[in-house]
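note to self — DONT lose this again. spent like an hour looking for the file last time. sequence + predicted structure for the chain T wanted, 336 res
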Amino acid sequence: MIAVLKAGVSETQKNNLVNWLKSQGVGVHMSEGEFQTVIGLIGDTSRIDPDLLNGLDIIENVTRISEPFKCANRRFHPQDTVIEVGQGENKVLIGGGNFAVMAGPCSVESEEQIVGIAKAVKASGANMLRGGAFKPRTSPYDFQGLGADGLELLKVARKETGLPIVTEIMSERHLDLFEDVDIIQVGARNMQNFELLKTLGRSRKPILLKRGLSSTIKEWLMSAEYIMSGGNENIILCERGIRSYDTYTRNVLDLSAIPVVKELSHLPIIVDPSHATGKSRLVKSMSMAATAAGADGLIIEVHNDPAHALCDGAQSLTPAQFDEVAAKVRAIREIL
């Protein structure tokens, strides 16, 4: 249930209403926009009489929400959420018309590798560095990442370039290691790891939440709801392709998810064309298409030597290829 307040309502009136609603056993989420204030009621709202609320002088209207995701719902928060990452001249805004480009290797392999790639992608226009320290792999015999050592190398690259860092967490037990990470990524395989999501909800770090391999948009938004219900509203959604019967590409990139999510939710959504296609030669066209479809950013794999990459070399761009993609994306952004 949401209640829209009339213009000119005082802070005292707002606080009195919020305190009364909480006394009725419901959670309260307040979204204050430029032109209106929306109060969202979360939990068992059956005891709240909408006619009683509508009768209050400070209420414009009351509406029940049928969707199970409440905090992530655009009706709770009509304006786009803008996520702030980094500080000073290196601060990056995601959402609300701001566009982020995250680029870097699938896996951190050495200091020379990650620092060199970070400098290259920054020169081409990337404003964030991605890189895997902990790697979920289908086979237990594949390279699993450098772990904590990889995180330290990412921090070295950040110091050298100023780029905020994005990296994936595998377990809530590792959260302390991510204290100095700018964006914590939840991978597709962990999208419904609810204990991890609840733990991240108690954090205030921005969370990049990837869509599960076979997840519906509703399930994806419900995973975001797990994090937001814990108090962390800094969520960035990431469409990375869903599983289909076609095996020509690694996954099927669902670009229709971009306008659908923007209709349903206020959260920013970015696209990962590298994991979606699994083929480097398709990354440029899918990056351009995602940008044209209204994505709030891209996350692209870039490696200095894809043929010898320890992880996902087939879908990684060289720095020169990434430079070309970044130029095409900028051109589309200028048109838009």
